[in-house]
C-alpha cells in the first residue's frame, strides 16, 4: 500500500511540506497518523490546502488532542467554536518570539493556522527549533541548566503593548488581574521523541527561579541570543490556503509585522493534550498581541 502523504523536508533541522494530501473525502486514520509522524520529525509542517473545510481543520486538530475555545478572540461560530479568527483588521498581532500560551500550567501541544486573506507582500512567519538549539549548547551549559525553571508571565508582553499604545490601560489592568503566570523547567523532554528541548521565549519569560536577578538576566540573554541563530530557523512565505502545523512543545514562532495597511486573516486551532478529556473544554484568553501567526 502506498503512503497516504508525501513529505519533503524544507530545512535540515526544521520544516517540511506535504506534497499530496487528499481532501476529497474524510481524512483517514492512516493519513492523520502520517501527518503526526511528519510533524514529530520536522516540528513544523506546511500543508497546501486551499480547499480545507472547517470540519477538516477540526478533524486534524482533534487527532492531536482537545481543540481550545478562546474566550477573547472571535471564532467561526456554532459548530466551529474551536477555530479562532485572527485578523489584523481587528488589531491582532504577534510580532515577537513565543510559545503559544506558555504562561498556562499546561500550554497547547500543537497549533495549526490556515491562511485565508494575505497581504500582497510580507506577513511571513518564522519558527525556531528549540530542540536543535538545545542540542548545540555546550555540555557545561546543559549541566548548568539541568533542574532550573523559569517564570512565564502573560503580563510581560502586556506591559510592552501598553508602552507602545497597542492596548488600553483598562485592558492592561484587566489582564494583569488574571495573574496568568506559571513556572516551567528551562529544559523539557519531548513526550514523544524523548529529545530535550529549551522551553523559553523573550516574550513571556521574566526570570529564572532561584537565581539572583543579574545572573538570571545574563543566562537568559545568552540563551535568547543562542536560539536566534539562523541555522535553527524556518521561514514560511504564505500562499492563500496554506496551513502550517507546528509543535508548540519544541518550537517558538514570530509573525513578521511588515504588511500594514493591508489585511491578514488566519483561522487558527490550538490543541491541548488529552489529559483534559472527560471535563469541560478549557477556555483560555491570551493577550490581543500574543497569538496571531
Report the total helices: 7
Report the end-to-end length measured between terminal Cα atoms.
Answer: 36 Å
Q: What's the shape? A: globular
Question: What composes the largest sheet?
Answer: 8 strands, mixed
Structural class of the secondary structure composition?
A: alpha+beta
Beta-strand percentage range: 25-35%
Oligomeric state: single chain
The average pLDDT score comes to: 89
Output the helix-strand order.
EEHEHEEEEEHHEHHEEEEHEEEEE
Helix percent band: 10-25%
Low-confidence stretches: 276-293
Query: How many beta-strand elements?
Result: 18
Specify Rg, calculated over alpha carbons: 19 Å
Summarize the entry for a quick read:
This protein is an alpha+beta fold and 293 residues long. It is built from 7 helices and 18 strands. Helix content is 24%, strand content 27%.
Tell me what you see in this structure.
α5 (155-163) runs antiparallel to α6. The protein is of the alpha+beta class and 293 residues long. A hairpin with a 6-residue loop joins β1 and β2. It is built from seven helices and 18 strands. The strands form five sheets. Strands 1, 2, 3, 4, 6, 7, 15 and 17 form an eight-stranded mixed sheet that branches. It has a three-stranded antiparallel sheet with strand order 14-8-16.
Amino acid at each position: 500500500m502506498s503512503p497516504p502523504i508525501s513529505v519533503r523536508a524544507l530545512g535540515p533541522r526544521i520544516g517540511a511540506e506535504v506534497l499530496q494530501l487528499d481532501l476529497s473525502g474524510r481524512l483517514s486514520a492512516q493519513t492523520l497518523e502520517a501527518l503526526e509522524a511528519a510533524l514529530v520529525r520536522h516540528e513544523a509542517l506546511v500543508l497546501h490546502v486551499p480547499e480545507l473545510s472547517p470540519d477538516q481543520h477540526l478533524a486534524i486538530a482533534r487527532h492531536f488532542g482537545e481543540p481550545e475555545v478562546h474566550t477573547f478572540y472571535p471564532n467561526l461560530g456554532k459548530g466551529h467554536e474551536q477555530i479562532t479568527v485572527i485578523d489584523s483588521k481587528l488589531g491582532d498581532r504577534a510580532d515577537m518570539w513565543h510559545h503559544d500560551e506558555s504562561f498556562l500550567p499546561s500550554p497547547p501541544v500543537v497549533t495549526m493556522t490556515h491562511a485565508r486573506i494575505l497581504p500582497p507582500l510580507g506577513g511571513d512567519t518564522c519558527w525556531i527549533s528549540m530542540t536543535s538549539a538545545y542540542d548545540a549548547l555546550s555540555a557545561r551549559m546543559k549541566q548548568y541548566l539541568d533542574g532550573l525553571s523559569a517564570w512565564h508571565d502573560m503580563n510581560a508582553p502586556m506591559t510592552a503593548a501598553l508602552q507602545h499604545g497597542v492596548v488600553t490601560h483598562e485592558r492592561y489592568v484587566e489582564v494583569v488581574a488574571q495573574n496568568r503566570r506559571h513556572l516551567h523547567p528551562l529544559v523539557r523532554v519531548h513526550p514523544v521523541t524523548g529529545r530535550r528541548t529549551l522551553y523559553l521565549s523573550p516574550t513571556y519569560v521574566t526570570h529564572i527561579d532561584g537565581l539572583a536577578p543579574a545572573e538570571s538576566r545574563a543566562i537568559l540573554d545568552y540563551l535568547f541570543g543562542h536560539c536566534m541563530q539562523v541555522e535553527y530557523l524556518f521561514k514560511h512565505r504564505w500562499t492563500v490556503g496554506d496551513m502550517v502545523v507546528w509543535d508548540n512543545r519544541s518550537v517558538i514562532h514570530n509573525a513578521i509585522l511588515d504588511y500594514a495597511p493591508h489585511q491578514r486573516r488566519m483561522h487558527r486551532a490550538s490543541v491541548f493534550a488529552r489529559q483534559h478529556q472527560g471535563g469541560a473544554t478549557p477556555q483560555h484568553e491570551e493577550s490581543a498581541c500574543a497569538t496571531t501567526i
